[in-house]
Amino acid sequence: MSDTAKNKKESAKRFPSLAALREKHTALLQQRAEPDEVELTTKINQFVRMGAATGEVIEAEADRWAAQSLLDYWSSQLLRMDQEVPDASLLAFNPELTPILQDHLCPYLGLDAFQEKNREFFFGRQRMVDLLVERITEEDLVAVLGPSGAGKSSLVRAGLLPVLKSGGIEGSEKWQFLAPMVPGSSPLFNLARRLKQLLTDCKLTSREIKKMLEEDSAALVSLLEEYLPNETVLIVVDQFEELFTLCEDLASRTMFIENLRSALKSKEGRSGHKLILTMRSDFENHLARQPEFQSDFERGVVRMAPLTASELRDVIEKPAALVGLKFEEGVVDALLGDILGEPAALPLLQFSLLKLWDGRQRNRVTWEVYHEMGGGRQALANSADRFYKSLIPEEQVTVRRIFSRIVRPGTGLEVTSNRIRRESLYAEGEAPDRIDRVLDKLVAERLVRLTEGRARADDQVEVAHEALVRNWPRLVNWLEDERIQLRERLRLTSAAEQWRALNEDSSALLRGRQLEEADQFNDLNTLETSFVAASRKLAEKEAQ
């Protein structure tokens, strides 16, 4: 056998890791007292040769120093025994020998919120989870407040709920848990659907439950007491601000709140059920319109604390450790330096981590892919821009139009997400197949979220996270250019929905200048087209 072949064969005999090398070192220390020096010498020689070859799978500098020190120790032992010493220099790290991580192992979620099914990868929020457990023990209503991007939804869904379901509070494992809901544009119907899922013995339809909630502010507690007597029910309303941003019906908004309040105290006055809300802190002033509820709300407020550098490091490194992902030395520190102090640190961090995972080399995140991404602060904007520039001009127009429908202007410069039905994207004059194609690409790029409905037209479309609205300059510029037109467009949508809610009452139709403005839009959905057509017909009739 040639020296080269021999060296290759010996190189293939290595310890699988530094931990395995250390374990063998400990075993050798225990064998030093053996009387058979020849056998001991053989074992030490084998350890040094295999240890040197193990350098090919040890990357971190500190780990390499630790391994080399063990090899040097046993080399010195051989010298004291007057034995020939093999080459004890660690071989260079060989990335081609590292394991390949499969895509399905990805521990990062990008712009998506963590859910209960992702709880094993949810790290960095133990302080807040402990605080919420303490508060929900003391209060029937706990309101989690924080800015957009603070991780409120993830905290409740992946942090708090699993703890409660496993008995984090005495007896909480026996509670009944209403599936987390968001208010949307029809909060009473969304609550009714969740109740239908929970109350398995209830023969009422979701629409019948909704009608009860509309007519009786104590309907929620009555249903719970009828079908779940003597049970504690935990209700989670995520993104509570949608009650003010998406729900246009004041009566529905009021009855939704009153039904929630009724569930907190039963008719007998005893402690009732539990309610957890999450809400963006910049919408807190809207509660002034509901003074009685505001008082309950303020007693249970828990404000999100920003993550410390140590907690952010846990968010990065602990999920990676679970799947065997490694970062080149310094990459994690650079990522932390980019993210610390950013208002939307968590979604930006998760998106960056997802992009780093996508660009990994086998089981390693390298400096090369970090620089290609543009660093943690620019990863989201750069990725969105690369996607946009990859489209043909017609598709770029469609992207802009889709985003103009799934974001909603607020007061001042405020912009919030606007969840819409897929059907409303099919504008007059634009090919449906192009809309479908572009929407699929946006979803695949993780810039837009699509939730499937009972029928395809009922699919819900929304921006993946409001962090995109604030951190993609191109989208910010679009919104600034179209802010006035967008407000007028959304007023038309609201007016059309109100007309439908009033059973197409002619008093709700457009007249005069409002009708003239509506005629300028060429992207009306089916409802809006009917609404404008009915308004025009009435205007022509009145002009005769």
How would you portray this structure in words?
The structure is a single chain. Helices cover 54% and strands 8% of the residues. The protein has helices at 3-12, 18-31, 37-54, 61-80, 126-138, 152-165, 187-198, 206-215, 219-227, 242-245, 250-264, 291-299, 309-323, 331-339, 345-358, 367-373, 375-389, 393-406, 432-444, 466-471, 473-501, 512-518, 526-543, and strands at 141-146, 176-177, 233-237, 274-280, 301-303, 326-327, 364-365, 407-409, 415-417, 420-421, 448-451, 460-463. A 5-stranded parallel beta sheet has the order 2-3-4-1-5, with helices on both faces. Strands 10-12-11 form a 3-stranded antiparallel beta sheet. A hairpin with an 8-residue loop joins β11 (448-451) and β12 (460-463). Mean pLDDT is 85; it is low at 1-11.
Count of individual helical segments: 23
- Rg calculated over all Cα atoms: 31 Å
Morphology: elongated
The number of E-state strands comes to 12
Distance between the termini: 106 Å
**Helix share, percent:** 40-55%
Order of neighbouring strands in the sheet with most strands: 2-3-4-1-5
β-strand percent reads 5-15%
Tell me about the largest β-sheet. 5 strands, parallel
As residue ranges, the low-confidence spans are 1-11
The assigned structural class equals alpha/beta
What is the average per-residue confidence, as pLDDT, rounded to a whole number? 85
